[in-house]
Amino acid sequence: MKIIELNNKNLATCSNDRSIRFYLKDNSEFKFNFKIDEISGCYTIIQTKENEICYSMGNNNSICFYDFIEKKNKDSLSNISVIYRGSSELIMISKDLLLIPGENKITLINVNEYKLISIIEVPGASWLLGVCMLSENMILMGSYSKAIYQWKIEGNNLILISEKENAHNDNINSLIKLENGYIASASDDSSIYVW
Fold first, then answer.
1. What is the pLDDT of residues 36-60, one digit of tens each?
2. CA 186 to chain CA centroid, nearest Å
3. Interior CA angle at 128 toward 188 and 193, to 5°?
4. Distance between CA atoms of 71 and 100, rounded to whole angstroms?
5. pLDDT tens for residues 161-178?
6. Is 142 exposed, middle or buried (0-12, 13-18, 19+ CB in 10 A)?
7. What is the rounded distance in angstroms from the CA atom of residue 97 to the CA atom of residue 101?
8. Could you tell me the CA-to-CA distances from 138 to 72, 94, 134, 170 in Å, in that order?
9. What distance in Å separates the CA atoms of residue 22 and residue 3, rounded to the nearest whole number?
């Protein structure tokens, strides 16, 4: 299950029960508003526009864009083959560009045109996950191949800057930027390193 706070301060959740729920903020409480039912294995969601979310449908490797004010689907993209159950992430790396890490690849989508921009192959990376924004034009990613990748954002493209092999002894599934400029990484081997 994933929960996000929308720009209007309301909440949205997705769950393995194949639904997305929306909650209205009422003073200090959140009250159920409505839900979308019968979504095929929804694993993650993100707000992509003022009144719009994007959610993954992991069972058929698709993503869908949904207007939560009009309460209707706007568009979808199928067969992107990058959604991973339990570790899916969708991240906006600019106001127009959605990044989806996957198995040995990264998918970039223009959310205004609902258009696939590119699929970047990362041979030997296994599943990519744990995306961390370092700056407006720099990101880090963990992987099931125990490596940490650093990417530069150039327009609608990513350029691989560096790769730290065997950063942990197992899958690297989480990265965060700390206030002091350092990076913390966490792994399935129960280790946390600060870089």
1. 886 666 778 899 999 999 988 766 6
2. 17
3. 40
4. 24
5. 999 999 999 999 899 999
6. buried
7. 13
8. 34, 11, 5, 24
9. 10
pLDDT at 88: 60
d(CA 129, CA 146): 11
Cα separation, 57 vs 3, in Å, equals: 16
Q: Are 133 and 139 within 8 A, CB to CB? A: yes
Is the Cβ–Cβ distance between 66 and 73 less than 8 Å?
Answer: yes
d(CA 16, CA 143): 23
* Contact predicate 175/193, CB 8 Å: no
The two tokens of residue 151 are 């990417």
Q: pTM of the prediction?
A: 0.88
Distance linking the first and last C-alpha atoms of the chain: 29
Q: What is the pLDDT of residues 83-121, one digit of tens each?
A: 555 556 789 999 999 998 888 889 999 999 999 999 999
Backbone angles phi, psi at 58, to 5 degrees: -60, -30
Residue 4 region by backbone torsions, left for phi larger than 0, else alpha for psi between -120 and 50, else beta? beta
Do 106 and 95 form a contact (C-beta atoms < 8 A)? no
Query: Is 83:57 a contact under the CB 8 Å cutoff?
Result: yes
Q: Within the chain, what is the greatest distance between any pair of CA atoms? A: 49
